[in-house]
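Support reply, case 0932

Customer input (verbatim):
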Amino acid sequence: MKKIIKISFFVSVLILVVMVAANTYRQMRVSDTTEEIKTEHFRVVYKGILDKEASSISFGLESRYDKLTSLFGIENLPLISVYVHPTQDDFDNVTGWRGAAGTVAGPETIHLSWPRLDNTTAIHEFVHILQLNLLINYGIDAGWSDEKIESEFSENYPRWLWESVSIYFAGERSKLGILYHMREGHRPRLKSFTRKNNKIYFVGYTIAEHIVETWGEKELIDLVRAFGDVESTLNVSEKELERGWHSFVSSRYITL
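Our regenerated output:
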């Protein structure tokens, strides 16, 4: 038993040493100066991370660009600026969204926190960019002023739709999260997903999934274009959509 304990301790120390050495080596290779990588559709601005790490972000975004812009029916987007912040504090201080992994600042700008970045975060935020551009185009066609477009988005565009669409197209499905937050008959209301309710990040995938499987991807995008007007887009009330979503989750996930 003592021998096993000694071996386990040695392995743990060895792993720690390797991790510290790897991190030290990485820090020696990164630059504190601001760098930039431009691709066809994105401009990635970064510091404190490796060039290849920044390149992987632009590559991931470019790999989904054509399919997503085609799905949303958006053409001729301006070059999207993607700012990658090396620390969470840096991200928090610049954006004001403390602890978040990413955010958008208008229809052309994405901010990402490198410590919390994974292979879906950038796509999630890019889908927010697409939603914003779709909503702005709707407002322009309707003859709205910039102030009217901004107020309609902030006051009337439902957060459950804003997040579920991005979560769905980024592929951020968490079966454990769904099971935990909708267990024991708990079925949240769509209107409950205010800014203070972050459970949307665990269950939002299933809202969009239900809409796509019941009505189709086009109808989901049409729902975005209609500022979340459920009745005019899906021909059901929001309450009926909610009940259908609850039933979908019960049959698809909870009974497993």
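We compared this against your earlier run and they match. Two observations from our side: The two ends are 41 Å apart (CA to CA). Residues 17-26 have pLDDT under 50 and may be disordered. Please reopen the case if you see a mismatch on your end.
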